[in-house]
Amino acid sequence: MAGEAHTPSDYITHHLQNLTYQVVPGNPFMSIHVDTIVTAVLLGLLMVFAFWLATRKATAGVPGKWQAFVEICLEFVDRQAKDTYHGKSKLVTPIAITIFFWILLMNLVKMIPADFIAIPLGWAGIHAWKPVPTADVNATLGMSISVFFLMIFFSLRSKGVGGFIKEFLTAPFGPWMMPFNLILNIVEWLSKPISLAMRLFGNMFGGEIVFLLIWVLGGAGVAGMVAGGAFGLGWMLFHLLVIPLQAFIFMMLSIVYLSLSEDSH
Hints:
This protein is 73% helix and 2% strand. It is an all-alpha fold. A two-stranded antiparallel sheet has the order 1-2. Helix 6 packs parallel to helix 8.
């Protein structure tokens, strides 16, 4: 795989290329990113399996190491959800747990060097595979759009259809400013999922490019190997903070948006 890339630009472009399936031949907008879907689904199943292992032998007494670790993680997310969300829905904590740990696992794929995945896949005849799902804007938009529909659901459940429409048209300036209220509310509601998706995508995609640049630097002689190793270690340590932080930010903003959707102006 790496041998097919003759220049650093070719190498980086190659590793950022998605494996796509075109639903409508010749129409790139009607295509599916197979690598993003497969990796995201597998990591989601891994998350469920890991939590199932903790509950399979759960004890009320002294917990095992894995059970204790999972309980600490779940209590942390549950505490953040309860401190941020002011409503009474029991769905918020499961939503927060799913968002945080799923995104965390998808982000952690970044810590695996790209060639460690690309070369074995190349042996199997797969010559395009972007390993990090959250470096694909389609994945982050898919998650943020899901949060957007949850916002609408929470708002309708709290205010009813009439209350939702009334607030959409009359807040914040009153009924005499209805056209301006409508424009402002449309912009406000649409900006939330877009900013949520772009923030996660931008950080993960940018970080992936830097990792690939450092990897290319490591192939430029002995000096390049030393510099690449030093920069790579520093960037990896930095991303050990960025990876959970981005998952935490996405989770917290999602909870905040769900809470705000139930509040009245």
